[in-house]
């Protein structure tokens, strides 16, 4: 069985929107979170969805799920004070309901430009190797800095990868890592891949596409809109 935790607990401060969190911004009348959810709802290998949402927006989210006929959502949890806590809440909601040998994908609610192939490859890699981490090649120069903010070393970008989402794991392994981190008093580890690497797990890459961006700033939203409209034009015009 395969499940996904959709993290939609952010408030979107960098988006500069005064009206609603970024995951509920709309493009052509449809919310970003719905664009994201539909990829998993329509994927035949995904058996269930756990969403983590800003608590005050859970009611609105439920209305959207009903409006767009999103049927696979089995769990909705309130977000925590950090991304790590929010993901834990989404995982913990499923603790007594699913087989702990299941595969679980962790994905951003504001990363709607995924596709069926990427989801499938994450599941396949996690089943074969124990995890699958979506990455894209670094395309710009990467340099290391010291504690004073001075550049000290250039890094060969051919060996660098930018980590994105989904990040996929055996549910038992990831839940255990979260439980251990909480027992140590760690509540703000940057992401699941970092947590699992620190625990000693070898991470296995899944090559993603550059357009699989996270919508964090207004320019990200404009990029998202351009890609969606280009895809729509391609379907209409047969380009």
Topology summary:
Elements: E1 2-8, E2 26-27, E3 30-31, H1 32-41, E4 48-53, H2 58-67, E5 73-78, H3 83-92, E6 103-108, H4 116-129, E7 131-137, E8 142-145, E9 151-155, E10 161-170, H5 171-183, H6 192-198, E11 205-207, H7 218-237
Parallel strand pairs: 1-4, 1-6, 4-5, 7-11
Antiparallel strand pairs: 2-3, 6-10, 7-10, 8-9
Helix pairs in contact: 3-5
Note the gap between the termini: 37 Å
Radius of gyration: 18 Å
* Shape field: globular
- Elements, N to C (H/E): EEEHEHEHEHEEEEHHEH
Q: Kindly name the structural category.
A: alpha/beta
How would you summarize this macromolecular structure in one to three sentences?
35% of the residues lie in helices and 24% in strands.
Describe this structure in words.
This protein has 239 residues and is α/β, with parallel strands linked by helices. It is built from seven helices and eleven strands. It has helices spanning 32-41, 58-67, 83-92, 116-129, 171-183, 192-198, 218-237, and strands at residues 2-8, 26-27, 30-31, 48-53, 73-78, 103-108, 131-137, 142-145, 151-155, 161-170, 205-207. A seven-stranded mixed β-sheet has the order 5-4-1-6-10-7-11, sandwiched between helices. Strands 2-3 form a two-stranded antiparallel ribbon. Strands 8-9 form a two-stranded antiparallel sheet. Helix 2 (58-67) links the parallel strand 4 and strand 5. The longest helix is centred in the last third of the chain and has 20 residues, at 218-237. It is globular, with a radius of gyration of 18 Å. 37% of the residues are buried. The model has no long low-confidence stretch (mean pLDDT 90).
